[in-house]
Amino acid sequence: MKRRDFLKSTSALLGGTIIYSLAAPMAANAQPVTGGTLIWGHSETTQNLDMHQTGTASTGRVLQNVHSSIVTVDKDLNVIPNLAESFEQSADGLTYTFKLRSGVKFHDGSDMTSADVKYSFERCKDPATGAVNFEVFNAVKSIDTPDPMTVIVTLDKINAPFLSRLAENGAGVIMPEGSGDVQGTTPIGAGPFKFVRREFGNEVELARFDDYWEGPAYLDKVIAREITEPTVRLTGLRTGELHMINDIPADRMAEIKSDPAFQVVTWFPLNWDFVNFNHDFEPFKDPRVRKALDMMIDKEQLLEGALWGEGQVTASPSYPTSASYNHDLKQRAQDIGGARALLEEAGYGPGELKVVFKVTTNYPYHVEAAQIMLEWFREGGVDMSIEQLTWSDWLSQVWVDKDFQISMMNFFTLWEPDFLYYSLWNSTGAFNYRKISDPVIDDLTEKARITTDPQARADIYKAVQKRVFDETHDVYLWFRNGSIGAVPGVGGLDTIVHPNGSNLNFHKVWLQA
Amino acid sequence: MIYLLNRSVSFAITLLLISVITFAVTNILPGDVAMMIMGTQSNPEALAGLRESLGLNDPLVTQYLRWIGGMLTGDWGTSLVFKEEIGPLLLQKMTASSLIVVMSMTIALTAAVPLGVWAAVHRDKWQDTASSTTALLGVSLPDFFWGIMLILLFARALGWLPSSGFVDPGEDFLRALKHAFLPSLALGLGLMAHLTRMTRATMTGILAQEFIRVARAKGLPERTVVWRYGLANAIGPVMTVAGLQVGYLFGSIIVMESLFNYTGMGWLTYQALLNRDIPLIQASVFVIAAVVMLANLIVDLAYVLVDPRIRLG
Amino acid sequence: MKGFLNAKGLIGIVLVSAVLLIAIFAPMIIPAEFATKMNMRARLDPPSLEYLFGTDQLGRNMFYRVMLGARTSLTIAVTAVAMSVAIGLPLGIISGYFGGLTDNVLMRLVDTLLSFPALLLALTISAVLGPNLQNTIIAIGIAFTPFLARIIRGEALRVTQMPYVEAARAAGTTDALIILRHILPNIMPPVIVQATISLAFAILAEAGLSFLGLGTQPPRASWGLMIQASRDYLDVAPWTALVPGAAVALTVLGLNMFGDVLRDVLDPRARAGG
């Protein structure tokens, strides 16, 4: 097989969402065959299996194969029908009518009806469920089911992002009526694979669901082995213990790509990272201090250092190809002298600002990034130390207790701008762990929710980005690349990445006999 | 008989103490169960509610009694992260680890006994120096370093053995052995070094004793003297030391199983600690301490059987 | 002093003094920034004239890191062992000298603690306290205390039964004086030997804790941390693991050899095979 690289969609500017490239692909004329068990070395541990309750991308990535959502998105992130074969919004924007697809079966053998949709939506809305996306349904006044194939959702006020939020399983998943109690242990959905079992921290087993409404998958089984150690994953692929792995170690990318023994899929973006300031920490109440620290960071070099260049720096967290991406913003260039002067102006002479950087070992590249930043901060006269935290400690100290000064986190590309900007920067947002309270942003994010004109909405979000940048509420760093490595016998890899860049879908993936 | 009774009572008391210490230490762990369950969706109100429903607000004594009561009646609770009943989970992981513990002990003993005897027989000669130096080197390297070296050699360079993962022996025994081999070898190397030194010391002592001299004087071949008379008397003390190393092994498997992604007891305990899975930490720390104590007790009892003089003491 | 003259003793002394000298003087000669200075154009460079021990994943000079890491490792080990001796000594002496109920209760507790593998104990304590340099020391120190207390108690008990102690008692000397004058000086040699050997274990324990992320924090140079960071680069840059691994091995080897010889000299009774 001759090695060649080709771009699935040539560039972000042309409107393609994921820049997708496949090195050393399987011969194009190979015909898919049914059968076989694919063993996937998954980079992360799945957590809570209840699709409504789970907040981790790792779990969503696997459950993408078990569940189907009411609507979904195409490659350009346009909302398209899925379990609903059509949907309609009333002129006043308050009523949504979904016509359901007939012949959709759940894994328990039952047929999907409007009752299941009503059940799923109400379960997500119910605070007792503890759903991550419960607020999607906040404005929902009623859910009516005039017949088994029709669902009418009525809102009491306009919620512009409502439909697009339903395109992700977190809010849009349809579960069989009454299955809530077992979702956490044995998820049941209408996706291409049935959930068989999970051994926590070790592996998840999925089996083909023959009655899948889009036609049965090729693979008999998918076994996702959870191997967080990057080199161990790579060794598994080399020895043939694994058919494919996600997240190829960044430093090995060049080597693996040029190795004819592997197929490599890379795409952009997988997720994005930013540096966080605790806005309750006295020195960081002064925007000049935050800006000074921003000026000490050379983002390009940090990307090179922490991720071996496997990503692209950005001054906006909006999906790079989306309308709301603010192209006018440019990251501040490194200017240590200027930063020192600014710190001095804010009242901190060299060595007077002492900060602790809490970083989670869950993302080893964060630990490296923190070490690199520490050098620059030291040059800039900031006395910084690093504290490594386990994932659970990071969650409890930084996320919940807000007991931190500087930290760093990544988020999966929340392509839906309301989900992204409201959750992270509104003072009441679910993901606002930095205690940011900026009335300007609060107003803008609320306004966007009731603005239905797409262009006007996009402009509001651009204004939010500019505000975050001007005030240096956080420091956006980069979008990170996603990658999959596979042995030559795996086919259909060009279909595997979900448009959100995070989820993997095995429906059209197959193994050469 | 009285000795046995005495030991059993003291075993029970120590077990109780272990439970108290385990419970006390795990209760001052920062972060809690409720936080871990909710993860990124945590918010103060929901957390407070969950804490209440989990009984985390009760006085510590109440919590301890509830815990120990549950342990005694066979209800070990449910792991928060693994979402599985702790009893069966521990049993399964303990089985996985036993494979490693037994294998590493076997590897260590098979190598250490002949090496130690060899060194003792050739005391202060080059054989002794060679064996002691090897043994010293062995104890001086962190066992996870051995692990890394073995991965480099057997998994990366030679590709003979898998570098990670656990396979259930009930499913495929041969593959299970293959997966357990490298971690066992890494553990065994450190242990072997230690046991070699012990065997040498014990054997040197025995070979200097009167009955050996008598045996030699009777004209018995040296081979018989050393192996039949010498080793037979050395094996007891050596086994005792080996038994005492079970504790060391259970400390080391935490690092080793994490390194090899071998999902046994050490891996489980580390995961529990990382995730603040308090019920699981409590149970697994308790079980490990109890197993170590049990191993020591068995060694003691075996010693009594072998060496009747101890009964007098 | 005859024992010091054999080859093993010599190697032990040379290794221990070398590490000690490095730990004391390296930080005075090598500026701290040298160990954290990064060079993105020289990542994972193999050993060369410019980089004697190669570079790590952030282009830091492994030579400086391993040199400066000596102080981290030794500081932790020495302080932790000093701590366990400081706690173990009074406990052991009280237990061994007074005997009776105190002894029973204390030793029951010590035996219980001994059933927890030291590394598990240190790991749990470190998780309780949160990882940093000081807490690593406390964790290792506490984890080693029961072992030392047990040994000290045995020694104290042995000395207490000596005729001169009984004579002193009969003469009406106060307990405090007996402990100071007779017990303490006589149990020190074996305690020093045990402490030396414990140092070796403490260095291994620090490496183990840091390896699991619950010990020393980056970017401080520590051998265990260096080995941990090397895991992802093992097959492309094995020196990142071999260099700190060798540092640990040589130090522990030196301490073990030194301890063996020290035992021969100070505590001949315990001489293996005696």
Task: Give an overview of the whole structure.
The complex is a heterotrimer of chains A (513), B (313) and C (274). Chain A is of the alpha+beta class and 513 residues long. Chain A contains 15 helices and 21 strands. In chain A, the strands form 4 sheets. In chain A, strands 1, 2, 3, 10, 11, 12, 13, 14, 15, 16, 17, 18 and 19 form a 13-stranded mixed sheet that branches. In chain A, α9 runs antiparallel to α11 (364-379) and α13 runs antiparallel to α14. Chain A is globular and about 70 Å long. The relative contact order of chain A is 0.16. Chain B has 313 residues and is mostly helical. Chain B has 2 domains: 2-73, no CATH class; 86-306, Orthogonal Bundle (MetI-like fold). The two termini of chain B are 13 Å apart. The model of chain B has no long low-confidence stretch (mean pLDDT 82). Chain C has 274 residues and is an all-alpha fold. Chain C has a single domain (2-25, 49-273), classed as MetI-like (MetI-like fold). Chain C has 10 helices and no strands. Chain C is elongated, with a radius of gyration of 22 Å. Chains in contact: A-B, A-C, B-C. The A-B interface holds A 47-48, 53, 55-56, 130, 132, 184-185, 199-202, 225, 227, 229, 232, 235-236, 239, 241, 390-393, 395-397, 399-400, 430-431 and B 30-32, 35-36, 38-44, 46-47, 79, 81-84, 155-156, 159, 162-166, 261, 263, 267, 271, 274-276.
